[in-house]
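QUALITY CONTROL LOG
STEP: pairwise intake check
CHECKER ROLE: data steward
CRITERIA: each record must contain a sequence immediately followed by its structure tokens, with no blank fields

ENTRY 1 OF 2
RESULT FIELD BELOW
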Amino acid sequence: MTYEKGKLALLSIKDSDMRLSILHQADTAIDRGVHIGGAFSAVVPLVALYHGGVIRCNPLEPASRDQDTFILSKGHAVAALAAVYADLGYFDKSLLENSRSFESILNGHPGPVLPGIPISTGPLGQGLSAAVGLASANRGTPSYDSYVMTGDGELQEGNIWEAVQFAGGQGLDNLCMIVDRNFGQLDDSKKL
């Protein structure tokens, strides 16, 4: 087995582990719900970024400036990000239980109370604008990358296109936008 095939096999196992973690979160959540569809569709890109060695991160010092930034613009998929972050050691896996309760740091959308999360997200399209700002700020010396995952439904929002135009106009080569095209918009499933 080649190195590449071995790495893909390990990433496939990690993908399954994260999906099981999401299901466990749903089972133990106070309302027994965690937006499973959106979380499941976010797993592959998150596993590739974090376990595939793409993003530079430091779970031991999540607020450190010497790392890349990631924003989950499709904030309702927080269970996927929480599964990955718990697996990496940003916080103890026991915090995945009893989510969406008043006592939990996992309340339906990511927020800065969760280690490694720079901003709260939830309103459609908001995350890309924040990622563009972080990419602009991280162009100094040394330079760090800014990653953002949006949902396909967000692409209908005007602020997404304003952020895209600004990023292109500024030549932000340290910005990576990942579109989770799962055709599963909340209110309208029309193809984009």
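ENTRY 2 OF 2
RESULT FIELD BELOW
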Amino acid sequence: QEAQSLQEKIGKAWKNPNIALWFDPHWTEVRNEHAILLPGSSDTRRPDRVLIKGSEAVVVDYKFGLHEKNAYVNQIEDYIRLLQRMGYRQVVGYLWYVELERIVKVAI
């Protein structure tokens, strides 16, 4: 029963154009859980998924809780700023609240 429920969720997710785009093969680079070194520091940030093509980058962070939090938006904004500092001109971020079946676009 749990497997069937999961299959239905996955099927529904693939019908969402944003989600389908994140897994589309047109991206030249896909980085999952790769660390980004903070400039001037030994600290790192680790977005869930970064998609790159030319000067375009998309950052996606998956959230599995049942609550949306402003801290998550701040986290995505930080990822966007880091990617912009790395030279990507078009950067957009998304929070995917998997359990809530909700996607929040974040741009700065």
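INTAKE CHECK: passed for both entries
DESCRIPTIVE NOTE, ENTRY 2: Strands lie at 29-32, 36-37, 44-45, 49-53, 56-63, 90-97, 102-106.
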